[in-house]
Every structure is written in structure tokens, then in C-alpha cells.
């Protein structure tokens, strides 16, 4: 399908080239000289949408924020103006004259570069420089203020592998302080854990007193964690920035006034350690598949007495709380004589701060083929109970399935569908083999051949239609074709009548009359021997043929009274065909 | 002479049939080893099977189970993905892959696709491109027949029916042809699984270029271009970058 892509690419490439002018790409900063603890804003501006943007490596800077991308599109005096900006906020790593290397952008297949920028970094400023509007320009990790603090709280710090715990990120804000412009700088990382966030939005506030001071408490994020490996695991902190607004008393002449003082603060939740213990190896049974928590096992046979060929179902249900859904459930080993379908799984699981709760149900549909008593063996399920610190094995009761009625004929097809005695680990047993280097039919040799064949047939159909139309438009041709086919059928009639001379020569006469009626366009009255011969002479038929024809004519007349052999008749038939062929050549139309 | 050809033909037939038989018996033997918990032996046999010229989604699924039993989660992910590549709707592999992925923390928020694209992909994935192609030819044939009837039939009722059927068949033909094309494109995408712990995504094929993104072990990536040591890849969230070829294993 290369042609298809090529055309599309061609259209797509031509359009923007022709619509837009020259590409422009440059870098700019808000300052060229900064203090070590100050921040720098760098913009990379494009006037065209790029295919690929490669920022410089910023070796001498920390990237505090970015890239943030903004786009604008404007029509000015009938001209369009497009602007796309990549913005980075940087903090220098060291003093001195630092380079910001060129950024690169791929526009319409061409690479554009900005020029390198030089930034002079001076001695650390004493305190963040206050700007006109009073907003501070703080270094990335200013110490958390006493008015606001941010914590990560673990529900427990010592767990087993697979034992659920949760971490809650809480933001404490002093009651008389306002906060706004909340901005998540870094999400927490839970390496070694399976994690699921429990809340979509920030919850709260709730009121809480800490050391005698009233705080509003917001729950920023609550995450359910399930450890996957043992050891001391670290939860990397969450970072956020916000604007803290306090009120200060100011004196203006005679008046005292409360003034809002905004301040940008950066908060981190602090790293947390979780000690994860491995599950004890002793008493670990082979059927343990990793379930940790507290579970119940229910095995229900829907109908314990069924007719052969009818369905029943076995339900294996595990419900409880813990790492539900994160372990395998062993299959039941059912008697081989029962036809069992692949189990259907039904999950009803909810995430809560103390783990996954709900149930998993496996439903086996059974169609017994033969009557008899079948024992459905007891099902074992082992889990680790972290509270009791030991393995618990649940065992269901053995069940008996009574099958009555006539056996369903064990035809071969049905047997194949029967899984070979379900194994405990549910391995696949019936591979659908396919060739490793199987070639696709699409775009193959035969695919194209068939397409060409279809095209050929299409053309053929149209051409034949065209030819037929030509023929149908000419009435003379149609009549001629009709006559020709009638004469042909008369010939074959004569051929089958070689035993009966009367009928045979009668047919030959009919052929001759029909032939001349059509060829010479004669009326029925004019169909006499003399008239025909005269007409033939005027249309320039050689006298030899006319003589032959009259001889033939006479024979037809006289033969009724003379004996004729079958061989003679054959010879006459051929002779007539010969004469007509000659006539065809001279008489056209 | 004829006999010789027949023998040759017979040999070829037996050869093909024999390979398949061999794959089958190896497969059964490997399953037996698995049940006896001889995992290394089972795995060796599973790996042997594709050399017979045959493979199956079930084969890779079982190989994945072996790896999982031995606690080699990355290999398990690789095998399950491979099984799913042969049959995208193969449920056991899909479920097992979910379970392993949960343990690997290999979660990246996939780029949300426009709904109709998602639906189309899901629809096209229901069958292999071959099935779509055969169906399209079926309708091409039907279109040609209805055209022939329309052009050459004498009876007016036949002509009329054919006249209405023809565009219908042509539309269906084009539809299935396009489905075949999409399926073919999807099947021919190169995918791989990230197999290294500390793999990173670089902006350029050079270790000195910026490396902002981390590749999760077990993550499925799409390979766009391969060079000697580097490959350009696309992550599930749409980010494009370079990584050394040793960081992944191709599906």
C-alpha cells in the first residue's frame, strides 16, 4: 500500500509548505545575570509547529520547572501569526559564566538551532530579592513554613509481602492563614509497591489541633500500597508549591491596617520507610499462590443431580480482604469424564485504605455426558494471615454429582472439547499451531494477482457490453443472426433425418427457401426457382454456382420418386453447405 | 518418473506433518515436566518448539507460566506479550499479564486515544488481516457478479436487483479492504518489551544527550527505527526517544 501513503504524504507535505513562510526559532531569557539562589526563565520560541523539539541538556542548571508549552495563533491584518513557546525555569548549579547550549527543532524536515546563551551567575544573594508586587522568588527548597506543613502518614510501617498498607498525604494549614495556587511539583514514587490511588480530589478540610494550635487539614492523596518485595522500601516524597497568604498589621499614618502578604512556599512530605518482611518459608505449602490477608472459601454446586447432557455449574468463590486479585486461584481438578468449559471469572473488588476487599468467583460450567456418581474433590486454598503470622488452609467439602438419564453419545467432536483432566496450574493444553514464518495474504503476490484478475474481468464485462450494444442497435444484423441460427437448427434436423428421405429433402428445401428469402430480401410470392436464379444473376453470382444450385434443386424435386441411399443424403447435405458457403462470399447483407 | 514425483510429494507431506507432530509431542512433554515442577527442563523444551517451524499462543502462554513460577517476572511478561501478539483476544495470557504487571509497577498512563480510533482498533483486532482480506475478495466477487448480471441479464427484475446490489457490494468490499489494511499495519508494527532495570529514554542516540524518562522494566514499547546500537522507540504515553538496543527484547 505504498502508493497510498505516498499520495497522502505528498498532499500533507505540499499544503503547509505553500501556506506558510520562513520558519523562525530563537531563545530568550528574562535576565543574563542572576544570583546563585535565584531562578532564571528561558523561552524557546517557534513560529511554526515543529516535528521534534530537542531542548539543550542544561548541564550547569537544575530544571526547576518545565518544559511548559504555550501556543498562540493570531490573525493580524490578514496575515496569520503562530507562536509556540517552550518555557523552562532553571536554577544554576554553580557560580561563573554558564552556557545554555542551543536547542534544536525539526521543522519541515530541516533542523533549526537557537544560538547559545551566556548567563553570569554571581554570589548567593542574602535573601530572596523582593519584587515590586511583593512576591518572593524563592530557591527550590525553602524550609517549610510554620503556618503550613505537609506530611505523609503510613497506616503501618512493618508489613509482610502482599500485606496492604496505605499512605495518606495531608496538608495542614493554620486556621488564620490562607493558601492558594496549589501546584504539584513531584508525585510520590512507590518503588517496590503496587499502588492505587484511592481519592480523585483533595478532601477536606477537617479541623485538628496540633500543639494547641488549630489547623485545617486537607487530605491531598490517599494511596493503597501492596509491597511486592522484601527489605526496607523507601517511599519517595511528594512535593508541592503553593502561595501562602498571611495577614500583617501595617501602620499608615494614623491608621492600622491588615495587609495580605503572599509568599511562595515549597513543601515536601518527607521520605518514609517501610520494613517489608518476606513470608516465612516453613509451613509454606505447594498450593500457596501468594494470597495474603483474611479470606473465606465457598464452593457451591448449583445442582447436585442432573440429567446427562444438561448443564450445571460449580462456583468457587474466594471473598475477604487483603491483596485480593493479585494472586492466582488454583483450578479444581474435576473428573475427566465430565465435560468442563474454561472457567468464567467474576471479580467484585473494591480498593479501601486497608486493602482490596470483595470477592472473586470462578464459575465452571459442567455438562456431564454419562450417568453415574461423580466425586468433585475438596478444594484447598491457602493464604497467609499477617495478624496470626501463619498460613491458613481452607478446605471445602467433597461434593457428589449425581447424573441420571441416558448417556449422551460420546461422539468424537464432543470428546475433543473435553479438557484433559484440569490441572491445578491451568496450563494451556490445546495449542493452535501456526507456521512461524507465515506470510500475510494482504500485499502478497496472490493478493495482487487476484486484484488484477478482478480488474481484467471488469474491463472484459464492459467491453462485451459495448459490443452487444453495437449489435443490438443494428436490426438487420439481429435478423440475420436469427436466420443463421434457424438455418443451423434446420441443418441439424436434416442430419438426424437421413433415414427418412421425404422429410430429409423437405428440410433441405426449407433451408434453401429460408436462405434466399433472407439473403435476397424476397417476398414469399417471389420465392420461385426462376425468380431466385434471375436475382442471383443480377447480383453477380458466378454461373457455375447457379448451375450447381439448379442441379441441386432438380434433385430435390425428383428424388421423391427415386431410391436414394443414406450415403447419398450425406453427400447432398455437404454439397448444400458448400453451395451456401460460396453464396455467402458473394452475397453480403 | 511419476513414481519418483509421488514419492517426493509424499516425503514433503510427511516432512510437514512430521514437524507438526514433533511440535505437539514436545509441547506435551514440556507440560508434563511443568507438572513435575522441572521448570528448567520444561522451559528448554518450550524454547525448542519454534525451531520446528510452528508456534502457538498457548506455547508462549505456557512458557510465560514457567518463567512466572521461577519468579522471572520480566521473562513472563515477554512471553505473555508474545502470546497476545499471536492472538490479541487470548484471555488467559491477558489476565496473567495483568497479574504480573501489577507486581512490576510497570504502569504508564497510556495516551488517551480518540474514541473512534480506539473502537476501530478494537474492531479490526477481532480478526487477523488474512480474514479481512478474504472477506474483501468475497465481496469483490459478489460485486463483479452483480455487475455482470446488470450488464448482461435479459430479465428486467434481475437487472434491477443487480443495479441496487452492486454499489452495496462495492462499499462492503472497500470497507473490508480498509479493515484488512489497518489490521495489516497493526500486525506489522514492531513491539518490544523493556528488559533492563535502569533503562532510560534519551533525546538522541547518544548517552550524553538528555535523558528525562525512565523505562519501566516489563513495559511494552513500539520500535520505530533501529540502528546499529540504538533504536528510536515510542512509549505508550506517546513519548518518542532513543534507547540502546540491549535494553529491550523484540516480540
Question: Could you walk me through the main structural features you see in this protein, from its secondary elements to its overall organization?
Answer:
The complex is a heterodimer of chains A (589) and B (251). In chain A, 24% of the residues lie in helices and 41% in strands. Chain A has 8 helices and 33 strands. Chain A starts with a helix and ends with a helix. Chain B has 251 residues and is of the alpha+beta class. Chain B has 3 domains: 12-104, Tetratricopeptide repeat domain (Serine Threonine Protein Phosphatase 5, Tetratricopeptide repeat), CATH 1.25.40.10; 116-187; 190-250, SH3 type barrels (Roll). In chain B, β5 and β6 form a beta hairpin. The chains are: A alpha+beta (589), B alpha+beta (251). Chains A and B meet through β16, β33 and α3 of A and α1, β1, α3, α5 and α7 of B.
Quick overview of this protein structure:
The complex is a heterodimer of chains A (589) and B (251). Chain A is α+β, with helices and mostly antiparallel strands and 589 residues long.
Give the termini separation of chain A: 54 Å
Report the sheet with the most strands of chain A, covering strand number, pairing sense and barrel closure.
5 strands, antiparallel
CATH H-tier superfamily of the largest domain in chain B:
Tetratricopeptide repeat domain
Name of the CATH superfamily of the largest domain in chain A: Immunoglobulins
* Number of domain units of chain A: 4
Structural class given helices, strands, pairing of chain B? alpha+beta
Query: What is the percent of helical residues of chain B?
Result: 55-70%
Q: Count the helices of chain A. How many?
A: 8
Helical/strand content category of chain A: alpha+beta
Tell me the number of strands of chain A: 33
Beta percentage of chain A is 35-45%
Rg of chain A (CA only): 49 Å
Low-confidence stretches of chain B: none
- Beta-strand portion of chain B reads 5-15%
Q: Approximately how much helix is present in the residues of chain A?
A: 10-25%
General shape of chain A: elongated
Radius of gyration over C-alpha positions of chain B, nearest whole angstrom: 24 Å
Amino acid at each position: 500500500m505504498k502508493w497510498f501513503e505516498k499520495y497522502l504524504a505528498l498532499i500533507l507535505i505540499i499544503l503547509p509548505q505553500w501556506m506558510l513562510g520562513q520558519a523562525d526559532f530563537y531563545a530568550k531569557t528574562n535576565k543574563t545575570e542572576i544570583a546563585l539562589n535565584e531562578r532564571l526563565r528561558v523561552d524557546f520560541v517557534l513560529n511554526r509547529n515543529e516535528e521534534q523539539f530537542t531542548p539543550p541538556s542544561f548541564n550547569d542548571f537544575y530544571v526547576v520547572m518545565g518544559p511548559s508549552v504555550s501556543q498562540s495563533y493570531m490573525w493580524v491584518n490578514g496575515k496569520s501569526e503562530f507562536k509556540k513557546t517552550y518555557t523552562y525555569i532553571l536554577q544554576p548549579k554553580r557560580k561563573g559564566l554558564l552556557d545554555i547550549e542551543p536547542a534544536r527543532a525539526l521543522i519541515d524536515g530541516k533542523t533549526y538551532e537557537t544560538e547559545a546563551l551566556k548567563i553570569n551567575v554571581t554570589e548567593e544573594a542574602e535573601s530572596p530579592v523582593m519584587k515590586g508586587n511583593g512576591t518572593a522568588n524563592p530557591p527550590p527548597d525553602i524550609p517549610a513554613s510554620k503556618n503550613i506543613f505537609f506530611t505523609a502518614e503510613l497506616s503501618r510501617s512493618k508489613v509482610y509481602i502482599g500485606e496492604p498498607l496505605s499512605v495518606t498525604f495531608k496538608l495542614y494549614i493554620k486556621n488564620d492563614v490562607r493558601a492558594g495556587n496549589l501546584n504539584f511539583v513531584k508525585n510520590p514514587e512507590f518503588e517496590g509497591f503496587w499502588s492505587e490511588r484511592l481519592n480523585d480530589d483533595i478532601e477536606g478540610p477537617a479541623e485538628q489541633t496540633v500543639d494547641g494550635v488549630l489547623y485545617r487539614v486537607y487530605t491531598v492523596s490517599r494511596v493503597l500500597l501492596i509491597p511486592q518485595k522484601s527489605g526496607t522500601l523507601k517511599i519517595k516524597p511528594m512535593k508541592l508549591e503553593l502561595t501562602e497568604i498571611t495577614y500583617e498589621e501595617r501602620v499608615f499614618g494614623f491608621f492600622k491596617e491588615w495587609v495580605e502578604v503572599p509568599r511562595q512556599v515549597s513543601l515536601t512530605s518527607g521520605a518514609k520507610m517501610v520494613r517489608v518482611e518476606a513470608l516465612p518459608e516453613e509451613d509454606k505449602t505447594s498450593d500457596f499462590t501468594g494470597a495474603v490477608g483474611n479470606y473465606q472459601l465457598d464452593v457451591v454446586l448449583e445442582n447436585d443431580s442432573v440429567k446427562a447432557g444438561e448443564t450445571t455449574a460449580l462456583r468457587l468463590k474466594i471473598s475477604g480482604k487483603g491483596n485480593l486479585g493479585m494472586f492466582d486461584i488454583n483450578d479444581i481438578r474435576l473428573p475427566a469424564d465430565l465435560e468442563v468449559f474454561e472457567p468464567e471469572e467474576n471479580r467484585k473488588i473494591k480498593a479501601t485504605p486497608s486493602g482490596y476487599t470483595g470477592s472473586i468467583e470462578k464459575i465452571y460450567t459442567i455438562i456431564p455426558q454419562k450417568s453415574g456418581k461423580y466425586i468433585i474433590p475438596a478444594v484447598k486454598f491457602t493464604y497467609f494471615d499477617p495478624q496470626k503470622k501463619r498460613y491458613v488452609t481452607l478446605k471445602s467439602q467433597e461434593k457428589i454429582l449425581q447424573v441420571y438419564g441416558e448417556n449422551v453419545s460420546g461422539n468424537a467432536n464432543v470428546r475433543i472439547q473435553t479438557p484433559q483432566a484440569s490441572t491445578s496450574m491451568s496450563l494451556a493444553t490445546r495449542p493452535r499451531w501456526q507456521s512461524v514464518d507465515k506470510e500475510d495474504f494482504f500485499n502478497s503476490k496472490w493478493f495482487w494477482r487476484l486484484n488484477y484478475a478482478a480488474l481484467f474481468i471488469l474491463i472484459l464485462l464492459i467491453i462485451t457490453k459495448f459490443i452487444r450494444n453495437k449489435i443490438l442497435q443494428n436490426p438487420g444484423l439481429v435478423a440475420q443472426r436469427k436466420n443463421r441460427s434457424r438455418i443451423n437448427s434446420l441443418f441439424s434436423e436434416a442430419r438426424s433425418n437421413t433415414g427418412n428421405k421425404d422429410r430429409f429433402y423437405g428440410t433441405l428445401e426449407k433451408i434453401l427457401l429460408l436462405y434466399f428469402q433472407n439473403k435476397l430480401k424476397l417476398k414469399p410470392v417471389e420465392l420461385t426457382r426462376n425468380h431466385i436464379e434471375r436475382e442471383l444473376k443480377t447480383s453477380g453470382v458466378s454461373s457455375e454456382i447457379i448451375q450447381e444450385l439448379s442441379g441441386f434443386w432438380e434433385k430435390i424435386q425428383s428424388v421423391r420418386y427415386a431410391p436414394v441411399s443414406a450415403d447419398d443424403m450425406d453427400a447432398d447435405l455437404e454439397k448444400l453447405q458448400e453451395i451456401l458457403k460460396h453464396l455467402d462470399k458473394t452475397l453480403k447483407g | 518418473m511419476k513414481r519418483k514425483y509421488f514419492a517426493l510429494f509424499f516425503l514433503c507431506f510427511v516432512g510437514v506433518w512430521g514437524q507438526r507432530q514433533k511440535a505437539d509431542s514436545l509441547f506435551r512433554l514440556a507440560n508434563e515436566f511443568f507438572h513435575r515442577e522441572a521448570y528448567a527442563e520444561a522451559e528448554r523444551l518450550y524454547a525448542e518448539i519454534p525451531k520446528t517451524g510452528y508456534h502457538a499462543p498457548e506455547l508462549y502462554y505456557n512458557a510465560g507460566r514457567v518463567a512466572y513460577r521461577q519468579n522471572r517476572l520480566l521473562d513472563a511478561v515477554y512471553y505473555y506479550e508474545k502470546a497476545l501478539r499471536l492472538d490479541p483476544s487470548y484471555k488467559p495470557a491477558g489476565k496473567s499479564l495483568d497479574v504480573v504487571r501489577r507486581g512490576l509497577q510497570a504502569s504508564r498512563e497510556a495516551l488517551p486515544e480518540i474514541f473512534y480510533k480506539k473502537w476501530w482498533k478494537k474492531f479490526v483486532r477481532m480478526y487477523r488481516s488474512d480474514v479481512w482480506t478474504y472477506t474483501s475478495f468475497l465481496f469483490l466477487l459478489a460485486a463483479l457478479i452483480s455487475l455482470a448480471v446488470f450488464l448482461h441479464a435479459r430479465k428486467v427484475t434481475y437487472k434491477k436487483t443487480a443495479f441496487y446490489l452492486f454499489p452495496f457490494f462495492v462499499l462492503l468490499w472497500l470497507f473490508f479492504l480498509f479493515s484488512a489494511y489497518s489490521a495489516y499495519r497493526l500486525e506489522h508494527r514492531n513491539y518490544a518489551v523493556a528488559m533492563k532495570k535502569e533503562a532510560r529514554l534519551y533525546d538522541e542516540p547518544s548517552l550524553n544527550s538528555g535523558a528525562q524518562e525512565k523505562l519501566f522494566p516489563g513495559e511494552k514499547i513500539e520500535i520505530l527505527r533501529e540502528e546499529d546500537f540504538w533504536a528510536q522507540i515510542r512509549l505508550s504515553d506517546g513519548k518518542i526517544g532513543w534507547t540502546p538496543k540491549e535494553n529491550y527484547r523484540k516480540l
